[in-house]
Amino acid sequence: MPKRILNVHSENWREEPFAISRGIDDNFDVVVVQLEQNGFKAWGEATPTEHYNESISQTESLIEDFRSQLENGMTRTELQQEMPIGAARNAVDCALWDLEAKLAGKRVWELPEISQHLGAVTNSAPGNVTTVYSLGVDTPEIMGKIAQKNSARPILKIKLTGDGDLERLEAIRKNAPNSRLVIDANEAWTPEHYQRYVPEFKLLGVEMIEQPFPADNDSILKTLDHPIPVCADESCHDTADLERLVGLYEFVNIKLDKTGGLTEALRLQAAAEDKGFRTMIGCMSATSLGIAPAFLIAQRAKIVDLDAPLYLYDDRPFPLKYDGSIVFPPSAELWG
Q1: Which CATH class for the 5-107 domain?
Q2: pLDDT digits (tens, 9 = 90+) for 50-62
């Protein structure tokens, strides 16, 4: 009899239409891993990303390649050594964390590796966090109206695309005068965009610029002034990337689908802080199950971008609780 039972399946979820520089989506696919052991069922969710050459079929196939090892007790340490980073490993890694907590009869933040990272002196739950609320790319008029609708939110994250971005930011600032602003160009800018926009964005109160240039062409950041801190997203996947990013960026955006799970995300956050980076926790399109593990990284992050469930038409049973932009810790019924 196998020590565990592995189930792998994909799901499609509908969300409000959302545009970034690379296109627009109104639905997304996830891969869900379920591990059953000793009567306990544990879950992990991941969102394969075409931009990183991932697909649902490729992700499921990679997990299936490890079926025998996973069912016969593969550990998280072994998983890090044998499965490459990416969505497949994320789903498995998060399921293993969930299973470890359930087998121990504890919440996941009570496990030593997590509690040490959080600096917890007690086993109390992590604190609530405040997430950004993201505005997809659109015309200045439409983005201004959306900003006005969400002007009570403490911090807005603005998706940009290059030409016309100054007009977009001016409309947003006019309609959300009290919100903090961060922006994300998703690799769409040229150096000319950067040099033209950054002084103006500084005056508009923008606090951070995420991934202005393509990941394979970001060395130019060393030659440019940084009056606004710049954050690596597509340029930073795991701890192996950090050394190259020194002198280019002030922030790194940690996403579990990039790191290949919570285990490496914990290491990346600690290593990034040791090198002087500030950290941001981000997410792909996801349900509450995909966001729940990232909540632990959010405890130390300077910017939290865990708003994906806010765009869903439906979420999972026992979803994360949001009160405006405030996110509460996941319930035991959801994860961890």
Answers
A1: alpha beta
A2: 989 999 999 999 9
For the chain, the domains span 5-107, 129-327
- pTM here is 0.95
Taking the CB of residue 243, how many other CB atoms lie within 10 A of it? 9
CA-CA-CA-CA torsion sign (21, 23, 29, 31): negative
CATH top class, domain 129-327: alpha beta
Beta-strand ranges (E) seen in the chain are: 5-20, 23-37, 40-46, 129-130, 133-135, 155-159, 180-184, 206-210, 230-232, 251-254, 278-281, 303-304, 322-323, 326-327
Active site annotation includes 106: no
Catalytic site includes residue 145 = no
CB neighbour list of residue 53: distance below 8 Å, 6 or more residues apart: none
Write down the catalytic residue from 222, 255, 258, 302.
Answer: 255
pLDDT single digits (tens) 200-248: 999 999 999 999 999 999 999 999 999 999 999 999 999 999 999 999 9
Q: Which of 159, 174, 275, 321 is catalytic?
A: 159
Longest C-alpha distance within the chain, in Å?
A: 65
Per DSSP, which regions of 137-200 are E strands?
155-159, 180-184
**Structural tokens at position 151:** 């002007």
